[in-house]
Design brief:
single chain, about 725 residues, mainly alpha, five-stranded mixed β-sheet, about 60% helix, about 5% strand, disordered N terminus, disordered C terminus
């Protein structure tokens, strides 16, 4: 079991501090989405002053357009909203001819710190020692007389509880946005403390101006009076065309042509040839591989496959919906879209939200299912020697089965997703495009969780990397399981699980990670948790090895009657229910600001995930052997069969689609639970639609070609319908 400790050594400590087990890589500007040269080329300071002076003197209607589309005070500051986005499209649509030039709008977003430095007034006399008595009423006569308000703004204060809540919320929001890539180049704790107390304001200015020169000319504000930083600017048609765009368009065009030809051939055979002609030759099967008609029929038609675990599609479907609804809430909160983020933060840290905050545990369900099916589908069919001899095919089959959908999503992210939507919230989406253009290759090699975890193409693809890495390691255990000797198989499985638990527990107790991804004290804590724990193969491997054991147990009882009396059956179900309930409840105390129990954090990080996997494994075993009752009935409903087949594509595409939808927002969104649930329904429906398209036009066709060219060895004859369903069922080790 040395290999498991080698995993530990990749990420464990050196002299009491964490070793950088991942390679930090920089994003090249050449892959940037927006055309930076365009922004520089349009600047002309002399023309800027001329245009502003002209509209101030002669075209106040145009001046009003700029002001109406731009800067204003955010609403709902006391509920956490420090952002106003102006009117994006109105600004970019400004196009007015004036003598000698054309005035066009440019939309910019600036960060305006709330803690502005008191401006220097060099033309005034030096301040006296101490303010005059009765200030500001007794303002010195030789100073300019200013209309002071009745209330001294320096004495205004927020309630301490409100100020603390605002600080905690923006601190946590920064962490989540770092995870999603919104702030790729910001790595300091100072940025965390300052980010939450900046106004993010839209300004609309002539495109030939810089923000500082335009605001100084329009409002008499400049560096000497107001300190702000330009975050980004946008111009019409400012998205640069790069090689990735042409590659994506070319590949999708070829696939579209193949779909058209294959579907047309399918229609021809259906109308003019005998029904048996479609499957009478291997060539016809390849010709029909891209047919929308055939692939849709295969997707929605289900015939029972002997030995299939029927409840898995239901479990997979519920787990996928849990993932999507969790990402719906987290993407809304982390994106900065909300007009009342403090209300959202208070709800997310309340007991009412535990069903959302516990959503990350569901990924461990997929790890467990992956391990279960690996053993269940191989045991009794493949020997240890055959596995060793065909190890290259074992690895190649796993990689190729996952490749089509993942590569398609990367191509979409590289080009299409960045172009189908636009708006002031494009910053995060453009970061996703930027990272995929730079690091698409590490994702296709499934090494992104170690090579560039801070710049992942497809942020949630870390799951695929870990799953592939565990499959690469799995033959070390499978050789014992497939030996045909029960004692040897049980010895290999138990030793492997104990080894991984020992290594991961030791690692967790040495590093003292928090047990929640919601509350962090510093940026370094967040970075360590995400890169060294959350996307680490060592710390996420235990549910997979629990799945190997569950799969072997199910193999031993395949086709057999299991006799369990009432008492042990009741105890097992009670244990499973208690474990799942505790797993769902556990995030609540962990996300409270006053939580401070490192021992509990370490124990939760080490054992919650494998225990959850064991509880779900019992549920699968019980349903398979008739002990599931109404749970089994629900999990076996026919709609889950289709969702189960779509689950892998749904997992890959749902999160990028959420970023695309969020990027179309033109104003902050008011958070309510009802709105978030409706948003989930729209996210879910869009995900299903895109997953269906990808499955029937890309995943299903390439699966046929992969099986054809890799070969499947000798098989028992099966009817065409059973063969079609079996091909799909063989892929269900993915999410």
């Amino acid at each position: 079991m040395i290999i498991f400790y080698l995993l530990c050594l990749l990420t464990i400590l050196k002299n009491g501090s964490i070793v950088s087990a991942y390679l930090e890589m920089n994003l090249p500007d050449s892959k940037y989405v927006f055309d930076k040269e365009l922004y520089e080329s349009v600047l002309d300071q002399e023309l800027c002053e001329e245009q502003i002076q002209f509209i101030q003197a002669n075209r106040t209607d145009v001046l009003i357009e700029f002001m109406d589309a731009g800067i204003r005070t955010p609403r709902g500051v006391l509920t956490g909203n420090l952002m106003d986005l102006g009117n994006y499209y109105q600004c970019l649509n400004i196009n007015e001819e004036i003598p000698n030039s054309v005035i066009e709008g440019k939309y910019c977003l600036i960060d305006l710190p709330l803690n502005q430095t008191w401006p220097s007034l060099p033309s005034l006399p030096e301040l006296p020692d101490g303010w005059p008595e009765g200030w500001p009423e007794s303002w010195p006569e030789d100073w300019p007389q200013l209309p002071w308000p009745d209330t001294n703004p320096r004495t205004l204060k927020l309630r301490a509880k409100l100020a603390q809540s605002l600080k905690q919320y923006y601190h946590q929001t920064f962490m989540n946005r770092m995870i999603d890539g919104a702030y790729e180049n910001t790595r300091s704790s100072d940025a965390v403390s300052s980010l939450g107390f900046n106004f993010q304001l839209a300004v609309c200015i002539p495109k030939v101006c810089t923000t500082h020169s335009a605001l100084n000319a329009l409002f008499n504000t400049g560096d000497s009076l107001i300190n702000f930083e330009e975050r980004f600017c946008r111009l019409p048609d400012d998205k640069a065309w790069v090689a990735g765009d042409y590659v994506a368009i070319s590949i999708f065009s070829v696939i579209g042509l193949l779909v058209l030809l294959s579907t047309s051939y399918d229609v021809y055979l259906t109308r003019y040839q005998a029904k048996e002609t479609k499957t009478s030759s291997p060539a016809n099967k390849l010709y029909l591989a891209f047919s929308i008609i055939t692939n849709t029929r295969r997707l929605v038609t289900y015939n029972p496959v002997p030995g299939a675990i029927e409840c898995l599609d239901g479990i997979r479907s519920f787990a996928m919906m849990w993932v999507i609804i969790g990402h719906t809430f987290s993407s809304l909160n982390a994106s900065g879209l909300l007009a009342n983020p403090l209300d959202s933060y208070e709800w997310m840290t309340s007991l009412k939200s535990i069903w959302i905050m516990a959503a990350p545990i569901t990924v461990d369900t997929f790890f467990m299912i992956s391990g279960l099916l690996l053993v269940y589908t191989a045991a009794g069919k493949v020997s240890s020697m055959k596995l060793v001899k065909n190890l290259h095919l074992f690895y190649l089959n796993r990689l190729l089965r996952m490749f089509p959908v993942l590569a398609t999503t990367i191509l979409l992210q590289v080009s299409i997703f960045g172009r189908v939507a636009d708006g002031p919230f494009m910053e995060t989406e453009m970061g996703n495009v930027h990272r995929c253009r730079a690091f698409w290759w590490s994702t296709l090699l499934y090494i992104q969780n170690y090579l560039n975890p801070e710049h992942m193409c497809i942020p949630h693809s870390w799951y695929l990397a870990i799953d592939v890495q565990l499959h690469i390691l799995s033959p070390i255990v499978l050789v014992f399981v497939l030996s045909g000797k029960r004692k040897l198989a049980w010895g290999g499985l138990v030793v492997a699980l104990l080894a991984i638990l020992t290594a991961s527990t030791t690692y967790n107790f040495i590093n003292n990670f928090p047990a929640s991804s919601f509350i962090f004290e510093t940026f370094e804590d967040m970075q360590n948790y995400m890169f060294y724990y959350y996307v680490n193969t060592l710390t996420r491997a235990s549910p997979f090895f629990v799945g190997l054991i569950i799969g072997y147990v199910m193999h031993l009882y395949r086709g057999k009657t299991v006799n369990l009396t009432v008492i042990p059956l009741t105890l097992l179900w009670c244990c499973a229910i208690v474990i799942t309930a505790l797993a769902v409840y556990s995030p609540y105390p962990l996300i409270q600001p006053d939580w401070d129990n490192q021992v509990a954090d370490n124990l939760i990080n080490s054992f919650l995930r494998p225990v959850w996997a064991a509880a779900i494994g019992w549920m699968i075993f019980a349903c398979q052997h008739g002990f599931g009752g109404p749970i089994n009935w629900v999990l076996n409903l026919s709609p889950w069969k289709v969702l189960g087949r779509l689950s892998y594509a749904m997992y890959i595409v749902h999160y990028p689609l959420m970023f695309v939808v969020n990027s179309t927002a033109i104003a902050p969104i008011f958070f309510t639970l009802q709105f978030s649930l409706f948003r989930f329904l729209s996210d879910f429906l869009l995900t299903v639609i895109v997953a269906v398209i990808i499955t029937i036009t890309i995943d299903a066709p390439f699966t046929i070609f992969i099986k054809h060219f890799m070969g499947g060895g000798p098989k028992k004859p099966r009817t065409p319908k059973v063969e079609e369903n079996a091909e799909i069922e063989e892929k269900q080790s993915e999410p």
